Fold each of these.
Amino acid sequence: MSERHFLLVVAIVQGALLGALIVLIVLNRWFRVRRSTRLNPRREAVDASMRRWTAGTAPLTGVLVGLSRLPVPLAIDALVKWSARVPGERWRQLALALEHNWWARLVRANSNSARWWKRLECARFLSVAAMPQDVGRLKRLITDRHPAVHVAAVASLERMENQSLTLTALDRLPRLAPTVQAYYAAMLLRSRPVVVDHLQKRLRRAEDPALPRLAEFAARLAEPALRERLTALADHADPEVRTQSARALGSYPHRESVAALKRLVTDEAWTVRAQAARSLGMITDAGTLPSVTAALRDDVWWVRLRAALALMRFAAAGRNALLQAEVGSDAYARDMAKLVLGLPAQALAEFAA
Amino acid sequence: MSWFSAAIGTTDLTILVYFLVLNSFYAVLLILSIPEIWEQTRLAEDEDFQRLMQSDALPPITILVPAYNESATIQASVTAILTLEYRNYEVVVVNDGSKDDTMEQLRHAFDLYEIPRVYPETIATRPLRALYRSRTRSRLLVLDKENGGKADSLNAAINASRFPLVIAIDADTLIEPDALLRLTRPFLLGREIAAVGGTVRVANNCTVKDGRVTDARVPRKLLPGIQVVEYLRAFLFGRLGWNRLGGNLIISGAFGLFRKEYVMAVGGYQTSSIVEDLDLVVRMHRYLRRNKIKYEMPFIPDPVAWTEVPESMKVLARQRERWHRGLIAAMWQYKTMLFNPRYGRIGFLAMPFYAFGEMLAPVVELLGYVITAVGLFTGMVNVSFALLFILVAWGYGMLLSIWAVVLEEVSFRRYRRFGDLLRLLLFATLENFGLRQCTVWWRLKAFASVWRRVHVWGDMTRKGFGRDEVTAVTR
């Protein structure tokens, strides 16, 4: 084949492709318009029947028929949307009825699919319509490797109380990115007794590499039953664990917590000192005022900031300590006191958050 | 004359091979963009992810807004940024020694009061004059400093920032309200993200209300219209394709979210750089690869920022010349990364592509035109072959542009009107006749500027959004 022939073939192929792409664009527009014309009335019909059923003026059958007339992803969208609006007991009726629906059975079967978007569909469906027999599927989906799938699946904990499901999510939590961890934590709050019981055991394992993350989660719970364990962690060798302990102890105005925090505010790691200063400001025990005032002269800016903000919470005594520091000999303390005393209430609240 | 014909023949063959290799690579990018946009569209539509993104779990972000002589737009821009749908963010505006009353406008609009500077100057910058907080907007921090350029302003804002993620936004860029939420998606996916880029779209001819694009339109004028296609091509298939190849070398400076610790580790933005965003991203790649840190720098298409593009040939010429000058400077400065196994895919794929496929492309294209002309003149190339070659080259360009339109149509469909779609197709076709050759010329001029070591910023004349008056912005 000569160069000319080659180019000619390329030109013809290009021309054909160009034509095909333009046809594709036009067909895509046409298809979308047709699809929305066809589906919009069905979607509205589902919304209307959901409304009537929620108000108790129509039977559930209308909702089920309406859902089965929608494509599966749209039916799941409708379910997710309405799940937040329908009261729990009524919603359970719908979930029970869906168990025998043909399309719901197909969606459930997708929990094992090799395609992540099929598993996502299943996870989204189960997050609002799971029944006790779906626990096995949900456990698999919560441990799924695709983030969108396990994030969708863990939302089922908002509706389902099941010990093994909770423990599966709790096991996964320390290995997640901080943001997703926080989301998991919010979902796990509903199963508080199971979580607290499990954390009490896990927080005893000093060598557990997941300890910092578990302590962080435990701190979010602010659960009195965990105070003792979190206080014990104040002496842990890992500074990250001590930081989490310092952070958590601010929620426990107990003499043991205060004693631990007084130790932690002089810790060798600055992150621990900063958190301890903040927590002392949350408890505002008058006996800790000298420790917090001393932290105002710390070498690290963040510790000084936390200490100054903490002093502002000690009311008049703390404010006086700051005023003294503002004219004192320590340049670090002077600057920080000047900064914090000059902040308006709004900025103070923002900093303290 | 045998040496002459041999030289012409060899050059001809070299150009043909270059053309084949480069376009095959584009074809690979094109193919890779298909699964990528499909996955991204699905994730963008996932409501559970939307819920996660609206939860308290979001990572806090600092928005960096450098401003120089932006008196006319600064209040509206900052107000729009302060009303973004995101829970935990702060805005650091830097007045870079403006000669107009930008600082006064800020002081008046946001009721600013001076505070002492208490954070360390981690990256050296031009001296700060003062720091201000707002009595009405607690998220806002304003820095007033001596003029040092955009990179210097960004560095000053990074020093003052409190949060682990930073995003630089031009004061004249319009960010969609949910763009920040969407931009954090890769961070929520639990991946090791060093930076993430969003889509920049053309705002000319769009309806803008209260700092928001309310009706997306394709411009009727040729020049901005063609740039809409260019932007779609660059973002929707170029960068999406690079996601799958593991090496986005450009995260748009107008709209990119960075992990602050890495930006600081490489010393922030380089003030001597012509195109500071490209320079920063290359340095981050170099640092992360050298230190064997696992990372990704993806591009995601659904977060959108809108920007005004040049409507005159003069301004466009300056912009393109500057961009290419920046590319040449970066490729030269980081030449040791080229084909260096230490830098993995960046050294073996991204850098060679940008060096040979982008930087040298205008040289090769010019050579192609010259050889064709010489060949035709001397009778070594016949007319029909030359025309066929040009037809194929231009046809391929059109194919790529129309593919970008296809990706837009099957995914986000911002341009709802049929007339806009027709205009997109028309501009994708017209791009190859005239503007493409002009771009080659402007990019060739960049080589001359680099040779003469010219280092100036072009003037960007903007009309402003939703206003009749014309604002001149000079950096």
Amino acid sequence: MLSSWRARLGWSAVRLLLTVVVVLGVFGLFLWGLGRDPIKAYQDTFRLNILNSRGLAGVLARMAPLLLTALGVAIPFRAGLINVGAEGQFMMGALLGTWAALNLEGLPMGLHLALVLLAGMVGGALWAAVPGVLRARGWVNETITTLLLNYLAPLVVGYFVFGPWRAPELAFYPQTPEYPASARLPLLFGTRLHLGFFLGLFFLLAYAYLINCSRWGLELRTVGGNAEAARRLGLPVERWILAAMMLGGALAGLAGVAEVAAIHTRLKLDISPGYGFMGFLVNWLAFANPLGILIMAFLIAFIASSGFTLQITQRLPYAAVNVLMALILFIVLAKPLAQRGKR
Amino acid sequence: MAETPVLRLVDITKRFPGVLANDRVNFDLLPGEIHALLGENGAGKSTLVKIAYGFYQADSGEIHVHGKKVEIRSPRDARRLGIGLVFQGFTLIPAMTVAENVALFLAELPWLVRPKDLRKTIWEASQRYGLELDPATPVWQLSVGEQQKVELLKLLLAKARILIFDEPTKVLVPHEVENLFRVFASLREDGYSLVFITHKLREALTCADRITVMRQGRVVGTVRPEEASEESLLQMMFGERLVEVAKAGTGRVPGEPILELRNVCTKPIGTAPGLEDVNLTVRAGEIVGVAGVSGNGQRELGDAILGLLRITRGRKIFLGEDATHWPPRRLIQRGVAFVPEDPLAMAVVPWFTVLENLALLDPRRFSRLGGLALDWSGVRQLLRAGFAKLGLNPLPERARAGTLSGGNLQRLTLVRELNRPYHLVVGLYPTRGLDVRSANAVRQALLSAREEGKGVLLISEDLNELFSLSDRIVVMLKGRIVGEFRPEEADLTEVGRVMTGAGVVHA
């Protein structure tokens, strides 16, 4: 049993390495075709984002929202649901968290921050509850509703940042006032790395343990593994579907509020470079495996950071990095059909 | 006979894991005849025609078409030889029109389809055989009977001369059946040869030129309807089977009622019938068998008892309490166990281990720290004790359910379901598709449940099994209970007649 587990891990590592090599190769060709020097580009990227402590902290800071949004996709995934809506849940988490940040001022330091984060989770959970209810009732497929709600969330946020919550001091720019100090997530070591990263790690560990070892994990996986059997075993299938969606939404919402509370310090429309979608990619690459989520979140965070490096060192548009991410997605999707849907 | 058969199947043998579906079957179809293939569910009729259509490959045996030996490796080959099959479930695309569905099936379709021509061809063909279809109608708007006509039309336009119908009347209402038989007759006049699968005696007697009866994978005989009677056909279908398992404790007085259904009704879903005024009592220490041709409400009966199907009228009493609208969870907690027909689809999670699947017995029971952890050693103990209790070797605890054979999966389900505190066990075709040993393990488990004073409801289509295990047998037809027998007072033929709607006994 242990040896087969090791063999599986070894095989996953080989596949991961192969994916990286192919992706770097093809993207290198792409760079070369644009008249850039791929070797130099990769060297710079590596030097500035891994070997440089400030750069590495930036990568880890980017991992924070990715870990949380990936978990936001992974939990529903284990219940057999496809949550494409982490992006919208991220925005709504930021929105409700901002409400708490701006309206509960005066509370003690730690308490205020805790309430802000909690409000963010509630925001994401409520946004995810809509597709959750629709799916649990058997009315609408959650893939479609979560996707469509992604387009709605920025409009709701837009209403508040253009309207009632708009900061008076910089009225030409649609954004809310700054979070009070008591509502901010502390940055660490004078870098962009913030407490959200450790929140992400904490929830990843909690997920890894609970999904595999707890009764709730067993029941949730049963619903995802064979809903018919779950129903016949008397498990509350509808409730689990809703719970899985809301838990996922809560973590994506937490990602959103943490990002604002640590990095942006005020709510505006461009708080996410697509963290929700990247989280979906992370989970798809990792197949809801906790260790896989950790590795893939790091990889995607590194690639996203590289985009900025390449902008500076190679004068490449940031969009080039989207090409890279799409490449990865294609290569992963090319994995044999037989391996999908396992676990 | 001077005529060369258009289709001749010689010594066809086909084995599925654990089942001998066709055992040296011989069958021939003459030009311009309607040949009925009659038999119980699982007699091997469908398998046989699917081999002729290239859907399955025979393990051994030969196929001759128009006197020449042929190899049929795929439905494509069969169609090239002019063989067409109308499946039980249809293969139409609901969003497309009749014309489009037909066009999809035609091999020699030109690159550019002229819809007008196509529609004209379809219109003509459908008029000729009284099929009366509008080619421009989307398929989803058609009734089941009309969809069947589209399937037939597809075959006719693809120039099939040998038409096989796999239980075509199963989905039809009576007047549609009459209509279909008229179509059959006009096809015969035009020289088509037809194979028609059914388990209904009257249909075979009404419309066929010859009737071949199959039982347990073998051909019992071929007769002409004018030489046959309902009795003789029933005899052929069910045989003079002897009761194999000694009935322990017959004549015993059963105990208190455990489950009572009073005038229970449910809504029909799709083509499946709803329950209509079902009255049924299962007492402690008795096995009540439910017989019937599948699709006559047995599954609905099971689901209504298990709380999975809403009871729209009537009452369900479980252990003296009104349980009409209890959810499944409550019924399970109060003591209802369930052994399904297809454990992989209905009872286990394929990529869970044996141990994890066993823990699903009741995740709460194995919870530790309020659910934060699970008591795996408790589950392991259940694995050992449960299998020992049924006299079985325990399965490897780390094996994934999806890798187990059907028999082992059913053992796993039995161990799980019969280790709840339960009073009633519902078996829904629990031995279907199992090898003999596994099926006997299930039967043995049900018998010992009765010995322990549990109530057992056994839904099965194996009359032999029902006769050997049950204390009482009820027969279902179209969602109603149409007969009740004591196995020691009735014989298979009688029950078979009621099952096939040949005669309704008012219990």
